[in-house]
Amino acid sequence: MISVRLLHVLKKDYFAKIIERIVFLLHDHQTEIRNLKQQEFTVIGYARKSKSGEDVETRTRLLNLMCKRLKERSLVDHVFVSYASQGNDQLAKRDLKQTSETYKGLHAEGSTQDMMRFITNTEKVCLVVLDYAGLSTNSNDLYENLLRRTINILTKFHFFIATLATIISICVHTS
Predict the structure, then answer these.
(1) How far, in Å, CA of 79 to CA of 161, rounded?
(2) What rounded mean pLDDT belongs to the chain?
(3) Residue of 55, 66, 61 lying closest to 105 (CA atoms)
(4) 25 contact partners, CB below 8 Å, separation of at least 6
(5) What digits encode the pLDDT tens for the residues 121-164?
(6) DSSP string, the chain
(7) Rounded to an integer, what is the distance from CA 92 to the centroid of its chain?
(8) Are strands 154-162 and 42-48 parallel, antiparallel or unpaired?
(9) Domain boundaries, the chain
(10) Phi (first) and psi of residue 62, to 5 degrees
(11) β-strands 42-48, 124-129: how paired?
(12) What pLDDT score does 109 carry?
Protein backbone atom coordinates (compact mmCIF):
# COMPACT_ATOMS: atom_id res chain seq x y z
CA MET A 1 0.00 0.00 0.00
CA ILE A 2 1.27 3.46 -0.90
CA SER A 3 0.59 6.39 1.39
CA VAL A 4 0.44 9.89 -0.08
CA ARG A 5 0.52 13.20 1.77
CA LEU A 6 0.31 16.74 0.51
CA LEU A 7 3.34 18.79 1.51
CA HIS A 8 3.44 22.57 1.20
CA VAL A 9 6.93 24.00 0.93
CA LEU A 10 7.72 27.67 1.33
CA LYS A 11 9.73 29.06 -1.56
CA LYS A 12 13.18 30.33 -0.60
CA ASP A 13 12.24 33.79 -1.86
CA TYR A 14 9.76 34.13 1.03
CA PHE A 15 11.96 32.88 3.92
CA ALA A 16 13.43 36.28 4.81
CA LYS A 17 10.04 38.00 4.81
CA ILE A 18 8.47 35.30 6.99
CA ILE A 19 11.35 35.41 9.47
CA GLU A 20 11.10 39.21 9.59
CA ARG A 21 7.34 38.98 10.30
CA ILE A 22 7.91 36.48 13.11
CA VAL A 23 10.70 38.50 14.72
CA PHE A 24 8.93 41.86 14.59
CA LEU A 25 5.31 40.79 15.10
CA LEU A 26 5.08 41.48 18.84
CA HIS A 27 7.01 44.74 18.54
CA ASP A 28 4.77 45.94 15.70
CA HIS A 29 1.64 44.95 17.62
CA GLN A 30 2.80 46.81 20.74
CA THR A 31 3.73 49.85 18.66
CA GLU A 32 0.20 49.86 17.21
CA ILE A 33 -1.30 49.62 20.72
CA ARG A 34 0.93 52.45 22.00
CA ASN A 35 -0.12 54.61 19.04
CA LEU A 36 -3.78 53.98 19.87
CA LYS A 37 -3.15 54.92 23.50
CA GLN A 38 -1.53 58.17 22.33
CA GLN A 39 -4.77 58.81 20.45
CA GLU A 40 -6.53 58.38 23.82
CA PHE A 41 -8.02 54.95 23.14
CA THR A 42 -8.70 52.80 26.18
CA VAL A 43 -7.33 49.36 25.40
CA ILE A 44 -9.31 46.49 26.89
CA GLY A 45 -8.74 42.76 26.66
CA TYR A 46 -11.21 39.89 26.56
CA ALA A 47 -10.57 36.24 27.36
CA ARG A 48 -13.09 33.43 27.12
CA LYS A 49 -12.97 29.86 28.38
CA SER A 50 -15.25 27.27 26.78
CA LYS A 51 -17.53 25.13 28.90
CA SER A 52 -15.71 21.93 29.82
CA GLY A 53 -15.14 19.52 32.67
CA GLU A 54 -12.17 21.36 34.19
CA ASP A 55 -12.13 22.00 37.91
CA VAL A 56 -12.44 25.57 39.22
CA GLU A 57 -8.74 25.82 40.07
CA THR A 58 -7.60 24.80 36.57
CA ARG A 59 -10.14 27.06 34.86
CA THR A 60 -9.10 30.03 37.03
CA ARG A 61 -5.39 29.38 36.37
CA LEU A 62 -5.91 29.20 32.59
CA LEU A 63 -8.05 32.35 32.49
CA ASN A 64 -5.49 34.20 34.61
CA LEU A 65 -2.77 33.12 32.19
CA MET A 66 -4.78 34.60 29.31
CA CYS A 67 -5.31 37.82 31.31
CA LYS A 68 -1.58 38.03 32.03
CA ARG A 69 -0.75 37.61 28.34
CA LEU A 70 -3.22 40.31 27.35
CA LYS A 71 -1.67 42.71 29.88
CA GLU A 72 1.96 41.92 29.06
CA ARG A 73 1.84 41.43 25.29
CA SER A 74 -1.06 43.66 24.27
CA LEU A 75 -0.61 46.29 26.98
CA VAL A 76 -4.33 46.33 27.83
CA ASP A 77 -5.64 48.70 30.49
CA HIS A 78 -8.57 46.50 31.56
CA VAL A 79 -9.35 42.79 31.13
CA PHE A 80 -12.79 41.17 31.03
CA VAL A 81 -13.45 37.43 30.94
CA SER A 82 -16.17 34.94 30.23
CA TYR A 83 -15.76 32.13 32.74
CA ALA A 84 -17.66 29.50 30.73
CA SER A 85 -19.15 30.23 27.31
CA GLN A 86 -18.99 28.78 23.83
CA GLY A 87 -17.62 30.78 20.89
CA ASN A 88 -21.01 30.81 19.19
CA ASP A 89 -22.94 31.95 22.31
CA GLN A 90 -24.54 35.36 21.87
CA LEU A 91 -22.56 38.11 23.58
CA ALA A 92 -25.71 39.56 25.13
CA LYS A 93 -26.50 36.24 26.80
CA ARG A 94 -23.05 35.39 28.13
CA ASP A 95 -22.36 35.47 31.86
CA LEU A 96 -25.90 36.46 32.85
CA LYS A 97 -26.07 33.96 35.71
CA GLN A 98 -22.52 34.33 36.98
CA THR A 99 -22.01 35.29 40.61
CA SER A 100 -19.23 37.38 42.08
CA GLU A 101 -17.95 34.11 43.58
CA THR A 102 -17.36 32.84 40.02
CA TYR A 103 -14.92 35.68 39.38
CA LYS A 104 -13.15 35.42 42.72
CA GLY A 105 -9.47 34.74 42.12
CA LEU A 106 -9.54 36.01 38.53
CA HIS A 107 -7.26 38.89 37.55
CA ALA A 108 -10.04 40.54 35.57
CA GLU A 109 -12.34 43.48 36.02
CA GLY A 110 -15.54 41.73 35.12
CA SER A 111 -17.60 39.56 32.82
CA THR A 112 -18.78 39.86 29.23
CA GLN A 113 -21.73 41.92 30.45
CA ASP A 114 -19.37 44.29 32.27
CA MET A 115 -17.31 44.59 29.08
CA MET A 116 -20.39 45.42 27.00
CA ARG A 117 -21.34 48.17 29.46
CA PHE A 118 -17.77 49.47 29.45
CA ILE A 119 -17.69 49.63 25.63
CA THR A 120 -21.07 51.36 25.54
CA ASN A 121 -19.99 53.98 28.10
CA THR A 122 -16.45 54.65 26.87
CA GLU A 123 -15.72 57.04 24.03
CA LYS A 124 -12.65 55.46 22.43
CA VAL A 125 -12.11 51.73 22.92
CA CYS A 126 -9.74 49.20 21.43
CA LEU A 127 -10.78 45.61 22.19
CA VAL A 128 -8.02 43.00 22.06
CA VAL A 129 -8.78 39.27 22.01
CA LEU A 130 -6.33 36.40 21.66
CA ASP A 131 -7.97 35.10 18.50
CA TYR A 132 -11.20 35.39 16.55
CA ALA A 133 -12.85 32.48 18.38
CA GLY A 134 -11.85 34.07 21.67
CA LEU A 135 -14.47 36.73 21.05
CA SER A 136 -17.13 35.04 18.95
CA THR A 137 -17.49 32.63 16.06
CA ASN A 138 -20.93 34.07 15.39
CA SER A 139 -20.27 37.01 13.04
CA ASN A 140 -23.93 38.08 12.93
CA ASP A 141 -24.04 38.28 16.72
CA LEU A 142 -20.74 40.15 16.76
CA TYR A 143 -22.21 42.75 14.43
CA GLU A 144 -25.55 42.97 16.26
CA ASN A 145 -24.23 43.15 19.81
CA LEU A 146 -20.92 44.89 19.49
CA LEU A 147 -20.61 46.84 16.27
CA ARG A 148 -24.21 47.86 15.58
CA ARG A 149 -24.51 49.31 19.09
CA THR A 150 -22.00 51.95 18.10
CA ILE A 151 -22.64 52.20 14.36
CA ASN A 152 -24.84 55.33 14.68
CA ILE A 153 -22.05 57.16 16.45
CA LEU A 154 -19.16 55.38 14.83
CA THR A 155 -16.55 57.77 13.53
CA LYS A 156 -13.63 55.40 13.38
CA PHE A 157 -13.38 51.65 12.99
CA HIS A 158 -9.95 50.14 12.93
CA PHE A 159 -9.31 46.44 12.46
CA PHE A 160 -5.75 45.33 13.11
CA ILE A 161 -5.01 41.64 12.63
CA ALA A 162 -1.66 40.11 13.39
CA THR A 163 -2.24 36.71 11.85
CA LEU A 164 0.75 34.83 13.21
CA ALA A 165 -0.01 35.47 16.87
CA THR A 166 -3.74 35.55 16.10
CA ILE A 167 -4.18 38.75 18.04
CA ILE A 168 -7.21 40.73 17.01
CA SER A 169 -7.84 44.31 17.99
CA ILE A 170 -11.13 46.03 17.31
CA CYS A 171 -11.05 49.75 17.91
CA VAL A 172 -14.19 51.82 18.07
CA HIS A 173 -14.34 55.57 18.49
CA THR A 174 -17.71 56.83 19.63
CA SER A 175 -18.72 60.35 20.52
Answers:
(1) 19
(2) 77
(3) 61
(4) 162, 164, 165
(5) 888 888 888 765 667 777 777 667 666 555 433 333 333 333 33
(6) -----------HHHHHHHHHHHHHHHHHHHHHHHHHHHTTPEEEEEEE----S--HHHHHHHHHHHHHHHHHHH--SEEEEESS--TTS-GGGTTTT--TTTTTT-SSS--HHHHHHHHHH-SEEEEEESSHHHH-S-HHHHIIIIIHHHHTTEEEEEEEEETTTTEEEEEEEE-
(7) 17
(8) unpaired
(9) 37-174
(10) -65, -40
(11) parallel
(12) 92
Minimal CA–CA distance to 154: which of 129, 130, 119?
A: 119
Residue 132, CA distances (Å) to 18, 50, 92, 127 in order: 22, 14, 17, 12
Distance CA 35, CA 14 (A): 29
Q: Please tell me the predicted confidence (pLDDT) of residue 100.
A: 66
C-alpha closest to that of 95 among 117, 110, 105:
110
Share of the chain above pLDDT 70, in %: 77
Q: Give the pTM.
A: 0.74
Q: In the prediction, which pLDDT does 87 show?
A: 79
44 with 125: CB under 8 angstroms?
Answer: yes
Mean per-residue pLDDT, 26-32:
87
Q: How many CB atoms neighbour CB 123 within 10 A?
A: 12
